[in-house]
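Example record for the data management plan.
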Amino acid sequence: MSNPTLGRRCLVLLGFAVAALPALAQAQDLYQGITKVEVFANSAMVIAPIQADRYQLVIYRLDALKNVEAAINQNIPKTEAAARAYFAANQAEIKKRITPSVLNGANGIALARHYKLERIPAIVIDGVSVIYGVTNVDQAIAMVQKHRGR
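Corresponding structural encoding:
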């Protein structure tokens, strides 16, 4: 026995899926020719999206070194002897925890200088196009694609 309500639900879902096809096609065209996107921001800036499937996305937090220092200083015991003992006992764990942030921040600062960025947020697309003041990667890509005439 067939369920007419279920059939209507399937048609409605199919209708939504068909209606979404042009938007999906536009989204796929949005990334055409884009291979790498680098975002330069500080930790207070919300970047979206934070992952990408169609191109390489790297987000550099330029204040990472300052944040790592603040986090380490927060846990340091007050006396010098206690601080030395703390670091001796936790050196490997501290190094393991902070290394990715330190590398990200240092690499970001070096690349920002290489690109001669004037301010953040800045999104660099394919090492050539720079968009300032935008934290939405798709919006920045759309601006570049429009400029490229795509």
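Summary line stored alongside the record: The chain is about 60% helix and 15% strand.
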